[in-house]
Amino acid sequence: MIRKIRETFNIPVSDLRRCSPLQLAFMGDAVYEIIIRTVLMGRGGRPHETSEQQARLACASAQSEIAMCLRDSGLLEPEEAEVFRRGKNASPPTRPHSSSLSVYHRATGLESLLGWLYLSGKEERAAQLVREGLSRSGLYPV
User: Is residue 29 annotated as part of the catalytic site, yes or no?
Assistant: First the structure.
């Protein structure tokens, strides 16, 4: 998908090492949201229930749980682990309202990783990691 968007809007491929972790997290937040919404739409259900599930899975605490499961599982490649670490250690300009700072930082790490994967053209890997994280955390049956 990223390739087609770049072609359509004539956007050059950039060196992702120059992107800040927070830029990657900005993109990764949308990637995570698309993955979660796609899964929920595929499972069907009433709109209100689907919306409640989406809110439960898209919050920082859920993302943090997924991040911990992925980090502790050994599933991350060394480069992925480094992108996650950089994102987790980034200093966001705002403070979380409904979670602790450590939870927020882990969620930012996951979002950075997903943004990096997407911008690298590795959407399948991003989906695979979210699936593994959901499965290992027990947050959602996959």
Answer: yes
Give the DSSP letter string of 62-117. Answer: HHHHHHHHHHHHT-S-HHHHHHHHHHHT---SS--SSS-HHHHHHHHHHHHHHHHH
Helices and strands, number each (H, E), in the chain: 7, 0
Full domain range(s) for residue 34: 20-137
Residue 70 lies in a domain: yes
φ/ψ of residue 17, rounded to 5: -70, -20
For position 120, which CATH number holds? 1.10.1520.10
| Closest C-alpha to 122, from 21, 42, 36, 16 | 16
pTM of structure: 0.91
Task: Read off the pLDDT of residues 56-97 as tens digits, 9 standing for 90 and up.
Answer: 999 999 999 999 999 999 999 999 999 999 999 998 777 778
Question: Could you say which of 29, 65, 80, 111 is catalytic?
Answer: 29
As for how many domains the chain has, the answer is 1
Q: Measure the CA–CA gap between 91 and 73, rounded to whole angstroms.
A: 25
Question: Does a structural domain hold residue 8?
Answer: no
